[in-house]
Design goal:
The complex is a heterodimer of chains A (435) and B (479). Chain A is mainly α. Chain A has 14 helices and 5 strands. The longest helix of chain A has 34 residues. Chain B folds into 2 domains: 94 residues, Penicillin-binding protein 2a (Domain 2) (Alpha-Beta Complex); 338 residues, Beta-lactamase. In chain B, strands 3-2-1-6-17-18 form a 6-stranded mixed beta sheet, with no helix packed on it. In chain B, strands 7, 8, 20, 21, 22 and 23 form a 6-stranded antiparallel beta sheet that branches. Chain B is elongated and about 115 Å long. Classes of the chains: A mainly alpha (435), B alpha+beta (479). At the A-B interface, helix 8, helix 11, helix 12 and helix 13 of A face helix 1, helix 2, helix 3 and helix 7 of B.
Chain lengths: 435, 479
């Protein structure tokens, strides 16, 4: 069976899932008759399948050799997210669906205009600089938007609150893949061993320290531990793959640990987050900064093994106030555990893990260093994003405002992740193309 | 670069395993602790969407029901207003404030079932709904008792001594439980310290029992075998008890009297002598057998009941404490503070041949389909006295009503056994606490009752409390 036919088959479960999901939400609401129920659910399923088929046909023409599983996996995530958001609010789901259409267009555009993605290497410093500017924009007055004490958004009136971290993560991965392709040899060759630890040469150590400094600066500038961890983690992953020196990772982790500890005990906003993380059910902090994480945990406990079913979780008090804040964005994973239980949540995590696996597989198959490093970087930053937000929601790490890729509501996240998918497919198509 | 890529993937798998572990931690392993956390309002809000069961009488009169309001949320409605305010209580689910039966039977009313059952129900597509609680209370007698108290602060408690079924539970002043749904709720009632309408005087009112306690002393005297109904006691006024002369009412001198006459005429000095001769240990033993020093075994919230006994600075004081004047305690003085339900239990034990049955407000629990899911079986609480002692006491208490201090309770065609009490509260201003405990018919007891009225000026148990008991007994027995 050809790769594209596998992909086509892979889309079937996603379409069934979206149909069944909408049907479940309608039943829970009890607002529709039996006929309307099947008609409307099938309509949503059909539209979704139509969009996916369109993208699939496009891939058949543009990237016939690309990995067949990446796109169906994304379709599963996307339809899961769409049902979840629809269950919270119809209007939000309609907007989210519109973002999907725009995302698919951007996806197609990326594939058409970046056919030779290695052109990106020429612009690496421009891309790096642009990413840093993007990251700092939210701190600027007027356009900047502060959410829960972190500076993560740029307000574009009437359209959206643009989240630059989503795009900056791509830029930084592209830059690092390109930079490390050049320097990975010298980093290893010039290294000395001190007390059994491999230390890279000082000359090249500088840029790495600069990247560490940047991650710390991010912590201070955007005050967000999660994004900082995501960027720095992707950097370490790429550094490790490029040099095969675990000691570099160790040094990086120690440096990040020291920096994180200092900031976690000195920057008030970060300190609050750490306090809440240490004691999520503290009674004094509950009404304010502890409200999100405590209710996240309560929602998960409410879900249990099998969950309460789509539409079964309680989101609002009878008075209309939210008891699960940011349910459509940051805390959507808590809602997922609440409604489809541990079983459903683990299934979703497996979908993410499969996606990451396909990303790494693409890296293994790639025939040049830049392609390999790019695929590794994209897969790693994607995995870390999932870890940062799910880890935050489950209190493995302090909770920060990052989206769950393709599932959380939000235009920037959808657009950026479709670009990420496009880049992975581009690398994959090139790698698997018969010579 | 393939080896580090594989290792990196292993690292990602480890990170994801961490996520699975933590998700399991909250959703499975620590889920029970989290669900029990009071910060979490989910169980409460979920309860609002469940149709809570009704509280009904055996005749089907509705005392509490849930009415659907906007947003699919149910609100509690109490059709009988203030009549059953205390025994039925109130349920304000938004804040989790519950009282009375609404609280003690909350599990049944809210339809709380085990995790397994709820999963089964979910699979069967059943909507959760609460069960109906059928109470033993008698609305007509409850009305009669409320009317008879006529707004005076006080309490009436009547139950069937044979099976513990509570028929009347009135605490006055009452309150309207429908107020919990109003904007200011119950807070104005909470702050009304003078009338304390939320205080359930039946189970929380701590009053000196006066001479009604002589029934306990007489029970101890007879049952211990040291005295008979014909034993001769010293009824002279001014007899020295614990070093201080004790006077009879109106300083009356009875000379030598039998135990029966001492009870019929409520002779203080004779009972003071009894108390001293029986001693603290025996008195303590019999009081505990009747339920003193323990919470009443009623299906009612523990926080709305208090223990009867000697109290010093609000704390319970053992009868055997050196400072206790057992002679004065034997006539219901000293620092003895009792609840009306406790005194009704004393009457009920005597009425039922010495066997004290647990008073209960619930008859049965019925599910939404009309099936009885639980029947509350009568349970014996204790046997404080022998059947013989009970029968002797019944005769003595019968004479109290025939010829003694309790003639006001006489009913045509029904023989009543009882005991009056008038506890002195403020001698200078002639303020007292009248009491009456009784059961009827004396030959075949069906109802045991305790009545008390707070701070009456110039009144006696026989003139203030006994007529109320008569009305309630008439209502319950003459049908």
């Amino acid at each position: 069976m050809t790769a594209r036919n596998r992909e086509l088959l892979g889309l079937i479960p996603a379409s069934l899932l979206v149909t069944a999901g909408f049907a479940a939400v309608f039943i829970e609401r009890g607002s529709l008759s039996q006929n309307e129920l099947s008609d409307l659910s099938l309509t949503y399923g059909a539209i979704f399948l139509g969009l996916c088929l369109g993208a699939h046909i496009f891939l058949r023409i543009a990237l016939p050799y690309a990995d067949p599983y990446l796109f169906p996996l994304v379709a599963v995530m996307a339809c899961f997210g769409l049902v979840m958001i629809y269950r919270i609010d119809d209007t939000l789901a309609r907007q989210q669906a519109q973002w999907f259409v725009v995302g698919l267009l951007l996806f197609a555009a990326t594939i058409v205009f970046l056919r030779d993605y290695r052109k990106l290497e020429q612009y690496r410093y421009v891309i790096a600089a642009g990413s840093l500017v993007l990251l700092c924009l939210p701190r600027l007055p007027v356009v900047g938007a502060q959410v829960n004490g972190a500076y993560l958004g740029i307000r574009i009136p009437g359209v959206m609150v643009f989240q630059p971290t989503e795009f900056a993560k791509l830029g930084i991965v592209i830059f690092l893949a390109s930079y490390l392709r050049d320097t990975r040899q010298v980093l290893v060759v010039g290294a000395r061993r001190v007390l059994g630890v491999t230390i890279p040469p000082l000359k090249h150590f500088g840029p790495l320290l600069a990247i560490w400094g940047m991650a710390m600066l991010l912590l201070i500038v955007i005050r967000d531990l999660g994004s900082s961890l995501m960027f720095f983690g992707a950097f370490l992953a790429l550094l490790y793959v490029a040099t095969n020196r675990f000691s570099f990772v160790l040094i990086g982790l120690v440096l990040f640990g020291i920096g994180g500890y200092y900031l976690g005990t000195h920057v008030p906003h970060v300190m609050d987050r750490v306090d809440v993380w240490m004691d999520p059910l503290n009674v004094q902090r509950y009404p304010d900064e502890g409200f999100q994480i405590a209710n996240s945990l309560f929602a998960q406990a409410d879900g249990g093994l099998l969950g309460r079913g789509f539409g079964g979780a309680l989101l609002e008090s009878p008075g209309g106030s939210r008891i699960l804040p940011a349910a459509q964005t940051d805390l959507i994973y808590a809602l997922i555990v609440n409604e489809v239980g541990l079983v459903g949540a683990v299934a979703l995590l497996i979908v993410y893990l499969l996606f990451v696996e396909r990303g790494f597989k693409t890296a293994l198959l790639a025939r040049d260093s830049f392609s390999t490093l790019l695929a590794v970087g994209l897969a790693a930053v994607f995995a870390l994003q999932v870890f940062v937000i799910v880890g935050g929601v489950t209190n493995v790490i302090p909770l920060t405002g990052v989206t769950l890729p393709f599932v959380s509501y939000g235009g920037s996240s959808i657009l950026a992740n479709f670009v990420l998918l496009a880049l992975l497919l581009l690398v994959s198509d090139k790698a698997r193309r018969p010579a | 670069m393939s080896v580090p890529i594989v290792r990196l993937f292993v690292a990602v798998v480890v990170l994801f395993a961490l996520l699975v572990a933590w998700t399991s931690r909250w959703s499975i392993f620590e889920a029970d602790d989290l669900r029990a956390n009071t910060l979490d309002k989910r169980p409460l809000f979920t309860a609002l969407r469940v149709k809570r069961g009704a509280i009904k009488t055996e005749d089907g009169e509705v005392l509490a029901r849930s009415v659907r309001t906007r947003g699919g949320i149910y609100e509690r409605d109490y059709p009988t207003d203030s009549l059953f305010g205390h025994p039925v209580g109130y349920a304000k689910l938004v804040t989790g404030e519950l009282s009375g039966l609404e609280r003690s039977r909350n599990d049944e009313l809210s339809g709380t079932t085990s995790e397994l059952n709820s999963i089964i129900d979910q699979l069967q597509g059943k909507r959760r709904a609460g069960n109906t609680v059928v109470t033993t209370l008698d609305p007509e007698a409850q009305r009669v008792a409320t009317d008879a108290l006529a707004g005076q602060a006080g309490a009436v408690f009547a139950f069937d001594p044979r099976d513990g079924a509570v028929k009347v539970m009135v605490s006055s002043p009452g309150y309207d439980p429908n107020l919990v749904n109003t904007r200011e709720g119950l807070s104005p009632l909470n702050t009304d310290r003078e009338n304390a309408p939320l205080l359930d005087r039946v189970t929380q009112g701590a009053y000196p029992p006066g001479s009604t306690f002589k029934v306990v002393t007489a029970a101890a005297a007879l049952d211990s075998g040291k005295f008979t109904p014909d034993s001769t006691l010293d009824g002279r006024s001014g007899r020295v008890v614990s070093g201080v002369p004790l006077r009879n009412d109106f300083d009356q001198d009875f000379g030598d009297v039998t135990l029966t006459d001492a009870l019929v005429q409520s002779v203080n000095t004779a009972f003071g002598q009894l108390g001293e001769e029986l001693g603290k240990a025996t008195m303590a033993d019999y009081m505990e057998r009747f339920g003193f020093y323990r919470l009443p075994p009623l299906d009612y919230p523990d926080s709305q009941m208090i223990k009867s006994g000697l109290r010093s600075d609000g704390r319970l004081l053992p009868v055997t404490s050196p400072s206790v004047d057992v002679g004065r305690m034997a006539i219901g003085q000293e620092r003895l503070l009792v609840t009306p339900i406790q005194m009704a239990m004393v009457a009920g034990a005597v009425a039922n041949g010495g066997k004290l049955m647990e008073p209960r407000l619930t008859e049965k629990v019925v599910d939404p389909d009309g099936r009885t899911v639980k029947t509350i079986e009568p349970r014996q609480y204790s046997q404080p006295i022998s059947e013989e002692t009970a029968s002797e006491l019944t005769q003595m208490m019968g004479r109290v009503v025939e010829e003694g201090t309790g003639t006001a309770v006489q009913l045509p065609g029904i023989d009543v056994a009882g005991k009056t009490g008038t506890a002195e509260i403020d001698v200078a201003n002639d303020i007292a606490q009248p009491w009456f405990i009784a059961f009827a018919p004396a030959t075949d007891p069906q109802i045991a009752i305790a009545v008390t009225v707070e701070r009456t000026v110039g009144g006696f148990g026989g003139t203030v409390a006994a007529p109320i008991a008569r009305d309630v007994l008439a209502s319950l027995l003459e049908r």
